[in-house]
Write a structure and sequence with these properties.
By secondary structure, this protein is an alpha/beta fold. Helix content is 41%, strand content 23%. The protein is rod-shaped and about 100 Å long.
């Protein structure tokens, strides 16, 4: 144990090279070091092992009996240390792993269908546990390790958190087609005069639409608040309600002739849809693979 405290990995690597090359200058070239540095390392190794290790013979060096005994154990030890220091390989087709992912209802609609199909096809041993939370709660879940990954819209992260922007999203409005004028548009006055539906996990949630209206010193009247998107489009049919949501939410209803999709009559900032994870997951090959799969699923959509 005392000798172990005196040695470092570089010395063991040098010893292996010396025993292979049996020559100071060739060892120096192999390790990109100077000959004096190799000679100094050999002297240190001789002191640690209390053995000459290599002795001069002709124009080179010859292993002592002790060095010959060390060759295979040293090679095995360095291989094991290399495997320890290298990140483990991840084979999705063979992996058995549970991933906990938090996302909004919107994120689930955009990501989950294609993600689940891809996981079933390429990584059938992966179990995906999906939860729903507000933006603030998702951030805390990632910080606390409650979830492995969160998908949503987040403020600039702290140094412990990482984010990747998956796409930039804009907003669109949805209304009953029969309630719309011939132009299939509403100006701001008409838009504000209509009652509105809001998809939010709780009342009073800060959102991009109301922040944009506040810039205009305007306020909409919310008539219905829904926690999920599920029935939102059906509630619009045969009513005077207007629903303003992320544009990708409306892709599936554009062919519904009962409904009209149109742009908001005022400027609304776009937003970045991101995936967020903690620094503790940064070096995890399986986690990195999942992030890459999600990015590919979303961008190929």
């Amino acid at each position: 144990m005392n000798n172990l405290k005196r040695i470092d990995l570089n010395l063991l690597v040098t010893l292996q090279a010396l025993m292979t090359e049996k020559h100071i200058s060739r060892t120096a070239m192999r390790l990109h070091k100077s000959q004096p540095a190799i000679s100094h390392a050999l002297a240190h190794l001789r002191d640690i092992f209390d053995d000459p290790l290599l002795v001069r013979r002709g124009g080179g060096l010859e292993l002592t009996s002790r060095a010959s005994e060390l060759m295979q154990p040293l090679s095995d030890a360095l291989d094991q240390l290399g495997a320890l220091l290298e990140p483990p390989e991840f084979d999705p087709s063979q992996a058995q792993r549970v991933f906990r992912v938090s996302m909004s209802d919107y994120g689930a609609r955009i990501v989950l269908p294609r993600l689940v199909r891809m996981l079933r096809a390429t990584a059938p041993g992966i179990e995906l546990v999906v939860s729903q939370a507000t933006r603030e709660a998702m951030r805390m879940q990632v910080m606390d390790g409650e979830v492995d990954l969160a998908l949503g819209v987040f403020p600039p992260p702290s140094t412990e958190l990482h984010t990747e922007t998956l796409f930039v999203e804009t907003f669109a409005c949805l209304a009953d087609a029969a309630s719309m004028p011939a132009s299939r548009m509403l100006d701001l006055e008409a838009w504000l005069a209509r009652p509105h539906a809001l998809v939010a996990m709780r009342a009073g949630t800060d959102n991009e639409i109301d922040r944009a209206l506040a810039q205009l010193r305007a306020e909409r009247r919310i008539a219905v608040i829904l926690p999920h998107w599920g029935v939102a489009n059906e509630l619009i049919v045969d009513t005077d309600l207007v629903l303003t949501v992320a544009r990708r939410n409306l892709d599936a209803v554009r062919a519904d002739t009962r409904l009209c999709v149109f742009d908001p009559p005022f400027p609304v900032e776009s937003f970045e849809f991101q995936q967020m994870w903690h620094q503790r997951r940064q070096g995890d090959p399986a986690h990195s693979w999942l992030r890459q799969v999600i990015a590919r699923v979303v961008r190929d959509r």
